[in-house]
Amino acid sequence: MAKKTDVIAAVADEFDMTKKDAESVAGYVLDFVYVMALEDGACAFGNHKFIKKTTAARKGRNPQTGESLDIPAKTKVVYKRLNR
């Protein structure tokens, strides 16, 4: 799985820029994709798709104490590669 540092290094190498500048560019693009996916429900680039997904609230358990707890619903962005 690629990390943000991998993306920054790849952008810096591809466009011959400093890692500091590449971090700004990569951060902007990743933030843009995240926000667009949350607002529109999905954001696609070629065969790459970022989809908004909502998880339901559920019951959980603290593994250290065994205490029951409520896990709230949350919205997240997931990545899916489309086959062409």
Question: What does this protein structure show overall?
Answer:
It is a single chain. The protein has a single domain (4-81), classed as HU Protein, Chain A. α1 (4-15) crosses α2 (19-40). It has helices at residues 4-15, 19-40, and strands spanning 42-45, 48-55, 58-61, 68-71, 74-81. The mean pLDDT is 90. It has two helices and five strands, in the order ααβββββ. A hairpin with a 2-residue loop joins β1 (42-45) and β2 (48-55). It is extended. Helices cover 40% and strands 33% of the residues. The strands form two sheets. The chain has a three-stranded antiparallel beta sheet with strand order 1-2-5, covered by helices on one side. By secondary structure, it is an alpha+beta fold.
Give a brief description:
This protein has two helices and five strands.
Keywords:
2 helices, alpha+beta, extended, two-stranded antiparallel sheet, HU Protein, Chain A, three-stranded antiparallel beta sheet, 84 residues
